[in-house]
Amino acid sequence: MRVKVSVIGCGYLGAVHAAAMASLGHEVVGVDVDEAKIAALRAGRPPFFEPGLADLLLGAQDKGSLDFTTDIADAAEARVHFVCVGTPQKPGEFAADVTYVDAAVDSLLPHLSPGAVVVGKSTVPVGTAARLAGLVQPSGAVLMWNPEFLREGHAVEDTLHPNRLVYGVPDGAAGETATAALDEVYAPMLAADTPRLVADYATAELVKTAANSFLATKISFINAMAELCEASGADVTMLADAIGMDDRIGRKFLNAGLGFGGGCLPKDIRAFMARAGELGADQAVAFLKEIDSINMRRRVRMVDIAREALGGSFIGKKVTILGAAFKPDSDDVRDSPALAVARLIGTQGGVVTVTDPEAVANASRAFPELTFVTDTTEALTGADAVLLLTEWKEYRDLDPAAVAGLVSGRVLVDGRNVLDPQQWRAAGWTYRALGRP
Ligand code: NAD
Predict the structure, then answer these.
(1) Predicted TM-score of the model (pTM)
(2) What is the interface pTM, i.e. ipTM, of the complex?
(3) Which residues form a coiled coil (predicted)?
(4) Which residues line ligand 1 (CB under 6 A)?
């Protein structure tokens, strides 16, 4: 059945969600306060790089089932309202800034009718849903929380084929109304046997922060092992392969390297620590402080390895950085480890050039003091050292002999452990990596 749906907040999460819901056959209006974003979306142009999103947008708009607006009043006719606005880290604090969520719900209140369902998808501190439910209730609408687990770079696939759906609902009839409404929206996914867990608000909110904390922990665990490998001469990639063969551990998320970044994991674990503190449970997640520290130490270590490989100083050395996005297949540069390394090397006297297949525009807006080029060949020409910091396929596929013909010095530091050391060394390169001899 076609459901009238609104999506408030059309960023990395909301734009994909809006297009995906339209592709399921629903009548969708996407709302954002950012006029440029809405203008791009209306024209069928994704305002950011995400594989498959352009086709999804065009397909849905051709069906006439997807529109975008800056006027929240246009959401009034929707029965299900998804809240997808940002919850960034507060400047100078660990806590999440939930003012965008509050503002979105506030702006929606005058347009809610009895029987409508407000579905929070943003990642929020536990307790947020219960607080907002009190604001929504007088309208006769019901609030539920449905955390989102999509990965940038795989957002379309993850939205349409999630591993699981989690509903956080109130007790009683209101919870049943909310569950039934969201089941109608997600009917094709439920028909494909996607597991669905119905929980209370707090559990649903915690599922998201707990999942991200676990993922961050797995990455920092292997990066802590990389530190030990560096101290002992062992090879962390083999170590990861060997421990990952144990089914109880698994090989996924055990790739040692420059660590995690982006608009989610770092701020989510910090917000979790802040919220746990407010609840008097700070000891429960005190380990996340160490997870964060291990992660941030990798950036410093990366700079140290590159400086060592260049003979002890960056001064006057041309350093080319491959990758600006926080991960491949995305143009998102929020808390990008690659850009953090670029800045550090710049402050130590290196002449840094950064390139990326998709993220140069965002990166140069965020770091106008750095030099960016879009063409990989131009970026590599004359380099004294090359640092692979975001593992885009086109960088993984680079031919060591061809790159050797462009650079001034054959020094390569593989920040993601994705290149074949033997192949690069055979072509005359000094190959260095994190956690490997
Ligand atoms: P984003 O910054 O890309 O998008 C947020 C959007 O909300 C922006 O376009 C902004 O203009 C808009 N907005 C802000 N206030 C608004 C208002 N009052 N009304 C309408 N629009 C408003 O952020 P994002 O990456 O899409 O993340 C959104 C939420 O989803 C966050 O809580 C994040 O933690 C969570 N999340 C993100 C991902 C991801 O991979 N990006 C995955 C899962 C969960």
Answers:
(1) 0.97
(2) 0.99
(3) none
(4) 8-14, 31-34, 37, 84-87, 100, 103-104, 107, 122-123, 148, 150, 152, 263-264
